[in-house]
């Protein structure tokens, strides 16, 4: 970090510093994983506000998740403690909500409008469409239209119109409208758009490869001059090969056409990877190459020219695979790699010992976590799971929130978070009483839901409406704590942007990765995205990476065939090696010792 006399850019290498120093043109930073994109953009903002005289209030940084936003804020506070508090760091949805709060009357909303959770959306859609099934269809239709990048100014089909009108009657917007309403507002009122352009003179967007059509329109309104000319103030950062949200409407095309959208834009490539060992980085590049969107990318690993090759493992079922992960972690915790078991060779003697928080187990679908959790529990290894669903959609949460509306506040309405916490607990009890035949599982779900909601309730100062808003904005369930002394269980999607010394990617089987549901066609573009997902997963690893799969189709669920993932065929012996299960061998050695 900067010395008292140095620049904030001192924390960057020459390539990164050059990128961060470009302040007179639109800027596209395109670079592979671990090259310091996030680090560079954060330092660039700190540079602007501490060394270029840019008022911090003029700076807007946009990320995709709350966690990424929080992390960026914290890093900024470290780099520019006096200014960072005034920089706006938002997710796309919180940016939209911010604009709507300020302009609520313009779109027929009250000043304290709420954001509909999934259960409310479904209830409203059902009311409009007649029954539950048609209600679900209506919501699907709406989200399909959104994914297709529909023009929010085009008239909606009748059902959708009535659905939106009903939301409005209740002073609610849904999650997608948080972006679409501001887009319409700004596109149809250039004077208003001008106000926001003046406010946010400097805009940075991390993970730009995952922008969707509506988010792009919103950015365009904020970043283009009233004449339609793009302004010199947008910085987009990303990696097309890590674009993994096509199913949600993300379109890597926006990234690829940045130069056309913003003539005069500068493009900078970063080539030094600070994260992974050579074998891991090269292996990941072997896997992505057939479908890479970044031709001639040549990433070099700055650290760890040697180190373990990627370990490939075939297990005889998912339980065995999970046991392999648990034993592998135990083994690495004990300071031994299990690549070179035959020689009993221990690597990394000089290196720092690994702790629980240094491990991540990654998987394609949430349901794969159960087997891993079971094996880790059996081995007595503490873990935490991060999923990527919205908190509001978690089992028990909707029921709990529905009940909350009927549970009166008691005592002092101004008693803040503790009052609301108490209300949540009473709501859980009431829900258990009310649900006919609520079994143990339901009860447990409701209590888990209470635990999930408590830290929120704290933040909301006891205001349930605020809690509903927070819930709808919390894109993901994020009770995951990167600092906790636990192994992390993550979906590949949730692992985006993170890094760990040791990573296990499980379920590297055809049908799971690429994921294929029975009856699915073979869509080339989806398949490419699956390859990118594996690339994202592999590039989270710093020192150790294991890719495993289980044979036996039943074990793999979904469309799993039990064959290893075709993506692994790209790996060669310079980057990877097949490894066995560490445990039986160790046992044998112990037995031998005893015999001696
Ligand atoms: P991803 O594509 O996965 O989001 P990224 O390009 O955003 O990766 P960062 O997360 O910013 O990469 O950086 C990766 C790691 O490398 C971090 O631990 C970061 O602190 C470190 N790093 C990046 N640049 C430097 C540097 N110049 N000096 C030291 N460490 C660096
Ligand atoms: Mg990043």
TrEMBL record:
<comment type="similarity">
    <text>Belongs to the helicase family. UvrD subfamily.</text>
</comment>
<feature type="domain" description="UvrD-like helicase C-terminal">
    <location>
        <begin position="278"/>
        <end position="596"/>
    </location>
</feature>
<dbReference type="GO" id="GO:0003677">
    <property type="term" value="F:DNA binding"/>
</dbReference>
<dbReference type="GO" id="GO:0016787">
    <property type="term" value="F:hydrolase activity"/>
</dbReference>
<keyword id="KW-0547">Nucleotide-binding</keyword>
<dbReference type="GO" id="GO:0005524">
    <property type="term" value="F:ATP binding"/>
</dbReference>
<keyword id="KW-0347">Helicase</keyword>
<feature type="domain" description="UvrD-like helicase ATP-binding">
    <location>
        <begin position="10"/>
        <end position="277"/>
    </location>
</feature>
<feature type="binding site">
    <location>
        <begin position="31"/>
        <end position="38"/>
    </location>
    <ligand>
        <name>ATP</name>
    </ligand>
</feature>
<dbReference type="GO" id="GO:0033202">
    <property type="term" value="C:DNA helicase complex"/>
</dbReference>
<protein>
    <recommendedName>
        <fullName>DNA 3'-5' helicase</fullName>
        <ecNumber>5.6.2.4</ecNumber>
    </recommendedName>
</protein>
<keyword id="KW-0067">ATP-binding</keyword>
<keyword id="KW-0413">Isomerase</keyword>
<dbReference type="GO" id="GO:0005829">
    <property type="term" value="C:cytosol"/>
</dbReference>
<dbReference type="GO" id="GO:0000725">
    <property type="term" value="P:recombinational repair"/>
</dbReference>
<keyword id="KW-0378">Hydrolase</keyword>
<dbReference type="GO" id="GO:0043138">
    <property type="term" value="F:3'-5' DNA helicase activity"/>
</dbReference>
């Amino acid at each position: 970090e900067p010395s008292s006399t140095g620049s904030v850019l001192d924390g960057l290498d020459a390539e990164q510093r050059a990128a961060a120093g470009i302040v007179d043109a639109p800027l596209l930073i395109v670079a592979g994983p671990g090259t310091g994109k996030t680090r560079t953009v954060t330092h660039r903002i700190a540079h602007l506000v501490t060394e270029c005289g840019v008022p911090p209030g003029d700076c807007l940084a946009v990320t995709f998740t709350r966690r990424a936003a929080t992390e960026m804020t914290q890093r900024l506070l470290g780099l520019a403690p006096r200014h960072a508090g005034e920089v706006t760091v938002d997710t796309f949805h919180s940016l939209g909500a911010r604009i709507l709060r300020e302009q609520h009357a313009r779109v027929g909303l009250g000043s304290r409008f709420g954001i509909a959770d999934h259960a409310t959306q479904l209830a409203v859609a059902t009311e409009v469409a007649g029954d539950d099934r048609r209600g679900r269809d209506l919501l699907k239709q709406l989200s399909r239209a959104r994914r297709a990048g529909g023009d929010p100014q085009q008239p909606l089909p009748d059902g959708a119109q009535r659905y939106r009108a009903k939301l409005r009657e209740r002073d609610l917007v849904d999650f997608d409208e948080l972006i679409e309403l501001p887009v319409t507002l700004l596109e149809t009122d250039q004077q208003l758009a001008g106000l926001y352009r003046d406010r946010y003179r400097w805009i940075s967007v991390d993970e730009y490869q995952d922008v969707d059509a509506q988010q792009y329109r919103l950015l365009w309104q904020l970043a283009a001059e009233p004449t339609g000319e793009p302004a010199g103030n947008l910085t987009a950062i990303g990696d097309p090969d890590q674009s993994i949200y096509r199913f949600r409407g993300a379109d890597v095309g926006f990234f690829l056409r940045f130069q056309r959208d913003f003539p005069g834009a500068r493009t900078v490539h970063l080539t030094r990877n600070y994260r992974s060992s050579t074998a891991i980085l090269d292996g990941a590049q072997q896997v992505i190459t057939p479908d890479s969107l970044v031709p001639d990318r040549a990433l070099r690993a700055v650290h760890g020219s040697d180190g373990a090759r990627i370990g490939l493992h075939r297990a005889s079922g998912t339980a065995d695979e999970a046991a392999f992960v648990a034993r592998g972690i135990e083994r690495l915790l004990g300071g031994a790699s299990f690549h070179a078991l035959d020689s009993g060779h221990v690597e990394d003697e000089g290196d720092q010992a690994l702790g629980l928080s240094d491990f991540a187990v990654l998987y394609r679908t949430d349901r794969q976590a159960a087997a891993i959790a079971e094996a880790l529990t059996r081995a007595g290894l503490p873990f935490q799971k991060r999923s990527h669903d919205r908190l509001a959609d978690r089992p028990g949460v909707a029921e709990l929130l529905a009940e909350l509306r009927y549970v009166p506040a008691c005592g002092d309405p101004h008693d803040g978070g503790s009052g609301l916490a108490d209300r949540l607990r009473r709501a859980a009890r009431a829900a258990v009483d009310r649900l006919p035949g609520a079994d143990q599982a339901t009860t447990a779900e409701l209590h888990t839901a209470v635990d999930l909601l408590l830290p929120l309730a704290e933040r909301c100062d006891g205001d349930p409406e605020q809690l509903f808003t927070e819930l709808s904005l919390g894109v993901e369930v994020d009770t995951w704590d990167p600092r906790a002394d636990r192994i992390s269980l993550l979906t590949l999607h949730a692992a985006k942007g993170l890094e760990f010394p040791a990573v296990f990617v499980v379920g590297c089987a055809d049908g799971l990765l690429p994921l294929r549901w029975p009856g699915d066609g073979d869509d080339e573009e989806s398949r490419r995205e699956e390859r990118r997902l594996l690339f994202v997963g592999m590039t989270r690893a710093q020192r150790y990476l294991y890719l495993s799969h289980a044979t036996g189709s039943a074990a793999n669920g979904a469309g799993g065939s039990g064959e290893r993932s075709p993506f692994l065929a790209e790996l060669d012996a310079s980057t990877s090696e097949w490894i066995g299960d560490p445990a039986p061998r160790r046992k044998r050695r112990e037995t031998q010792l005893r015999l001696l």
